[in-house]
Amino acid sequence: MRMIRDIAIRAGVAIVPVFLAACGAEPDDVPLPRGARAFAPPPVYVRWLAEVRRCSDAPTGAADVRWYEVDGDYFEMNGRMVFTHYDPRANRVVIASAMRFDGSAIRHEMLHAVTRSSTHSRSLFLGTCAHLVTCPEDCLADAGPPPREPAGAIRVPLAEMPVTLDVTPAALSRWSADDFLIATIVVRNTRAVPVVVQTPTPWGGPDSRGFGYAASTDERSEWWDEPMRRSSVLRFAPGETKRWQIDLRAANFPDGALRVRGHYLRRWSDVVQGTITP
């Protein structure tokens, strides 16, 4: 199976891009989308919410958020086709059912919920929580322009940026309540000065990629690339480490060895092996 996070909706022969999330201000008394129904968050949401609370320094946020889902890959909200939506007045999240276990999309909405805000703070969505949440075009536009390049930053080739991958736990049962392996891509600036990484493809172009992964067993594989929309992905403070979290659901793979690689700007880490057990 191929997984591509940059999703579009096909209408006839045209490809119509849509936002991954809709989180803007809404008119009063916005009804739920047609077919929306309440659902109990799966166990993994407890961990995902804890991660968002830590990165946002909101230790008790989103305690009473309500969750709804609509069958399918997307739904209509205020004239737009969307995948997820947060309403700060009702403190509710609506998702397309296909997104239920998409960690970066769900944590994006959780980040809105813990702050009770529909806006996209640069310091959170592109700062302390950037490794946990997706930030598509509407999020980037709302966050405003990036800060200026650090004074004294030097250009470095991608080959000089060490890229590693951590996978935890080493083994996981598909019957675990939280049945996700956590793969974290780690990129380090080993210099004592700020750096800007030189990209192998034009930044922001159709072929530019930020982070991504490939996971496979002898019988099944999946992969994902995050389009490189943010210049901050290229900028490192002195000694800075950037991370990107990937959530791999055990139920998507057969039992046995799971081989995982992660990349930064398509510079790949070594293969790390996890194990899916009955």
Outline the structure in words.
With 278 residues, the chain is mostly beta strands. It has 2 domains: 8-143, no CATH class; 154-277, Sandwich (Immunoglobulin-like). Helices cover 14% and strands 36% of the residues. The protein has 4 helices and 21 strands. The protein has helices spanning 44-56, 103-115, 122-128, 137-143, and strands at residues 8-11, 14-17, 21-22, 37-38, 66-70, 75-77, 80-82, 84-87, 92-96, 154-157, 163-168, 171-173, 180-188, 195-198, 209-216, 221-227, 235-236, 241-249, 256-264, 267-268, 272-277. Strands 12, 15, 16, 19, 20 and 21 form a 6-stranded mixed β-sheet that branches. It has a 5-stranded mixed β-sheet with strand order 3-8-9-5-4, covered by helices on one side. The protein starts with 7 loop residues before the first strand and ends with a strand.
User: How many strands, which pairing sense, and closed or not: the largest β-sheet?
Assistant: 6 strands, mixed
Mean pLDDT: 86
Which of globular, elongated, flat, extended, rod-shaped describes the shape? globular
Question: What level of helicity do the residues show?
Answer: 10-25%
Question: What is the count of DSSP helices, taking H or I runs of 4+ residues?
Answer: 4
